[in-house]
């Protein structure tokens, strides 16, 4: 099924609303204020019957008065086909030109010119106005459009216009109805008795169904779709190109016009965007660096500052790469079109296309920044994806994140990444997690420096703890979460840069050193603990009384690791032979008597209460024994 939105554009009182009524039978002036003043304030909507079940057509009636340009921009953002309405008795007027400029800025590609109120004019005058219009639309998307002369009052030309509209829309490209791409800019919020909060808008991407979980951006408010209406009729589904109302499980106070209903994870919050900005040739304004402007996109408006990245002033007719920084967070996508209006007085001065919907803050006059934006503007899909990967490697992006940044379908993103892997410039760190080679090149030297320094200071130790190595990586790669650090750690092992043994990490080629002096000291330490028996020496005292405290600590750690000593507590070690003796005495007594008390074990060991209790608590911690009613039994 094909769903099409037709929009009107044109000067105030040029007959847009009457034209829609003549085409559809629906009066789109629904507000009392509109009836009273005779002008369209909010966007109105009507259905145009196509006579074909597979084609659904909606028409948006947008305001023409200068004061209502904001509402016009909200309506025009989701249209597929435009009717530029010009009254025959007045011709091209100021809002005609402003609306036409906006249509160009928003990259509208299809439409007709409709000359209304022809019943009030002579044929010769109509021909003169047609010539004026033909000259005006030259070099625009309407250059080859027929100019339809109609009268909404008498009905002259209306049927021919309707037939040509139906013929033209059959040639339009189909919308993307992928549910994952669902996006609906909200242009109205209200409550219905017995239903709750309802939002309306033109569904510009994807599709949705009753029961879907969605979010309201930019606030990331979770919501669930309780009900759907399409053109006022209950429906189970809604598709791109339809006027849609959604009944949501949220409070009305939490939702605003300008928010976007979207699939969770399909959009990013941001306070800035990188864009290609074009200043209209017809504007009398220039834009200076750091100028404030009104930014219009979807159904929203935000105030922001223009940061000119390669100049100090943008002149009429010029195009530049710009970073727009906003006073509040917004949400949009790469390749969205927008318009800007001068801050005061408010008039449309330009617009353009979003190149990066969530960039980092840029310094001005940086060739690397400008080169990146050129790729994001005119590069191939491979160049685009590689550039985003290079800039986003800090967060270890996966396929979904890169698809979100580039606004490419995830399947296409995966296929391009597979192709880029073949160049050697893109690395896959585990499954579906990617780094650019230029970013990865800084990681091996970083890890090597850490471990070389540790090995130099601890030549007898197998390595630095695994968790410490991961912690160092996380501090360097602050955008990566713990799971991604784990994947990188495993990748470094796979590449034989590092190795791990018993939770200790070392460089792959590292081997602990054991000199003759060290071997002698090992024997001395072992004899010390063997002679001590159950009266274990305090570890700190052993270290302090040695010739080289640092080496002694390393040797003790190694003896514990090798099982020559048993760490009863962090402060007391026992020789393994003494430990086996203590364990044997314990088991023999319990097997004979069924249990053992602290006093009984102290007598058997012929030791102090302090050492006896430490050993028993160690047995408990190892689940050799369990304590109940002051007695211990074997587990």
Notes on the structure:
- There is one protein chain.
- The protein is of the alpha+beta class and 635 residues long.
- The protein is 35% helix and 28% strand.
- The chain contains 20 helices and 33 strands.
- The strands form nine sheets. Strands 7, 8, 9, 11, 12, 13, 15 and 16 form an eight-stranded antiparallel β-sheet that branches. The protein has a six-stranded mixed β-sheet with strand order 2-3-1-4-5-6, with helices on both faces. The protein has a six-stranded antiparallel barrel with strand order 17-22-20-19-23-24, surrounded by four helices.
- Helix 8 packs across helix 10 (410-421) and helix 9 (399-406) packs across helix 10.
- The longest helix is centred in the last third of the chain and has 18 residues, at 576-593.
- The two termini are 71 Å apart.
Defining key terms:
20 helices; alpha+beta; elongated
The general outline is elongated
Instruction: Give the uncertain stretches in residue-range form.
Output: 31-42, 64-69
Average pLDDT, rounded to a whole number, is 88
Q: Give the percentage of residues in beta strands.
A: 25-35%
Q: How far apart lie the N and C ends? A: 71 Å
Using only CA atoms, what is the Rg?
Answer: 37 Å
């Amino acid at each position: 099924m094909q769903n099409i939105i037709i929009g009107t554009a044109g000067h105030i009182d040029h007959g847009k609303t009457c034209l829609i009524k003549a085409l559809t039978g629906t009066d789109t002036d629904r507000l009392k204020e509109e009836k009273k003043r005779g002008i369209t304030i909010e966007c109105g909507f009507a259905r145009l019957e196509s006579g074909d079940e597979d084609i659904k057509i909606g028409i948006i009636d947008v305001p023409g008065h200068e004061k209502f340009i904001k509402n016009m921009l909200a309506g025009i953002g989701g249209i597929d086909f435009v009717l530029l309405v010009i009254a025959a008795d007045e011709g091209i007027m100021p809002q005609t030109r402003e609306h036409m400029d906006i249509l160009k800025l928003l990259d509208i590609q299809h439409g007709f010119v409709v000359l209304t109120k022809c019943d009030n004019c002579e044929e010769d005058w109509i021909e003169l106005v047609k010539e004026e219009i033909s000259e005006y639309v030259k070099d625009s998307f309407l250059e080859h459009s027929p100019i339809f002369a109609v009268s909404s009052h008498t009905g002259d030309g209306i049927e021919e216009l309707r037939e040509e509209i139906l013929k033209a829309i059959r040639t339009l490209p189909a919308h993307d109805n992928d549910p994952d791409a669902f996006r609906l800019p909200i242009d109205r919020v209200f409550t219905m008795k017995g239903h709750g909060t309802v939002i309306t808008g033109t569904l510009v991407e994807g599709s949705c169904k009753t029961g879907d979980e969605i979010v309201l951006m930019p606030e990331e408010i979770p919501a669930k779709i309780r009900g759907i209406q399409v053109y006022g009729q209950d429906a189970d589904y809604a598709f791109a190109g339809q006027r849609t109302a959604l009944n949501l499980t949220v409070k009305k106070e939490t939702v605003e016009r300008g928010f976007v209903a979207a699939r969770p994870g399909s959009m990013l919050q941001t306070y800035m965007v990188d864009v290609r900005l074009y200043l209209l040739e017809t504007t009398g304004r220039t834009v200076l660096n750091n100028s404030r402007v009104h930014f219009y996109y979807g159904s929203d408006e935000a105030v922001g500052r223009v940061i000119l990245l390669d100049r100090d002033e943008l002149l009429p007719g010029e195009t530049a790469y710009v970073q727009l920084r906003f006073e509040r967070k917004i949400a949009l996508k790469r390749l969205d079109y927008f318009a800007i209006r001068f801050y005061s007085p408010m008039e449309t001065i330009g617009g353009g296309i979003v190149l990066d919907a969530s960039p980092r803050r840029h310094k001005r006059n940086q060739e690397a920044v400008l080169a990146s934006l050129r790729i994001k503007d005119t590069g191939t899909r491979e160049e685009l994806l590689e550039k985003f990967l290079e800039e986003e490697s800090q967060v270890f992006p996966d396929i979904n994140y890169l698809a979100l940044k580039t606004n490419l379908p995830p399947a296409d993103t995966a296929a391009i990444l597979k192709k880029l892997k073949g160049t050697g410039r893109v690395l896959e760190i585990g499954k579906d997690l990617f780094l650019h080679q230029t970013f990865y090149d800084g990681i091996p030297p970083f890890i090597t420096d850490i471990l070389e320094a540790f090995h130099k200071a601890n030549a007898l130790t197998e390595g630095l703890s695994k968790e410490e190595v991961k912690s160092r990586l996380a501090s360097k790669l602050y955008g990566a979460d713990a799971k991604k650090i784990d994947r990188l750690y495993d990748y470094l092992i796979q590449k034989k840069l590092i190795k791990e043994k018993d939770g200790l990490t070392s460089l792959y080629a590292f081997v602990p050193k054991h000199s003759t002096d060290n071997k002698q000291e090992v024997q001395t330490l072992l004899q010390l603990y063997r002679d001590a028996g159950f009266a274990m020496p305090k570890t700190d005292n052993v270290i302090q009384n040695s010739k080289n405290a640092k080496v002694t600590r390393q040797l003790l750690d190694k003896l514990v690791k090798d099982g020559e000593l048993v760490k009863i507590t962090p402060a007391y070690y026992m020789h393994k032979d003494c430990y086996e003796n203590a364990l044997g005495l314990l088991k023999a007594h319990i097997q004979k008597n069924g249990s053992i008390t602290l006093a009984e074990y102290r007598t058997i060991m012929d030791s102090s209460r302090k050492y006896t209790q430490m050993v028993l608590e160690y047995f408990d911690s190892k689940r050799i024994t369990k304590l109940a009613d002051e007695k211990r039994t074997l587990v």
